[in-house]
Amino acid sequence: MYPLRYADADQIRRLFATYSYPMTASREFNVLTVTAPPPFHAQVEGAVKEFDVAPAPPRNIELTFYVVTGADKPSAQPKELEAVEKQFTAGGHFKGIQVSDTQVLRTRAGLPAESGAVRVRAAWVNGGDKSKVISIDGLKVTVKSCSVAADIDVPEGRAVVVGKASPDGLLVVVAKVTE
Q: Hey, which of 22, 80, 151, 170 would disulfide with 35, CB 3.0 to 4.6 Å?
């Protein structure tokens, strides 16, 4: 008998359907019963070890949208916006940036989400643990004087400009994966 915690006993039984050994699966108790010689049991144990594993916890995705404009004097800003501030100040016209609006949206991978001025059809996490990219499908943002509808990819933790807001402002998004 092989009691299973996560995998379906009948699905494991079907993996071995081409063999003639008697196998029964109890859906009520999620137990697989096998009557076979020891070498076959080793194969079944291997399949149970491979497939009877806890599912990965769902990933949460946090999207932060900033409306950023140039400023005459520097001020404290979120760390994620440092690269954007460098771009604004590089031309010499501005000494810093000012965040005039912020919208935060939190969702789970693959699910739609909406919060005020931001709507997402789905967001996905791609890549490994060190270099994640968040793909956002069906993004619609309407804040201040900016409206954006697009599908975009955002490297985790980096600010990405997704639109122009007012004459000298930008709409910037920062994406993070939280467990």
A: 22
User: What are 57-104's pLDDT values in tens digits?
Assistant: 878 999 999 989 888 888 888 899 999 899 888 888 889 899 988 889
Both structure tokens of 145: 């004087």
Neighbours of 158 (CB within 10 A): 12
Tokens 């122009």, residue? 164
In 3D space, the residue among 157, 95, 152 whose CA is nearest the CA of residue 118 turns out to be 152
Q: What would the DSSP string read from start to end of the chain?
A: -EE-SSS-HHHHHHHTTTS-S-EEEETTTTEEEE-S-HHHHHHHHHHHHHH--PPPPPPEEEEEEEEEEEESS-----GGGHHHHHHHHHTSS-SEEEEEEEEEEEEETT--EEETTEEESEEEEES-SSS-EEEEEEEEEEETTEEEEEEEEEETT--EEEEEETTTEEEEEEEEEE-
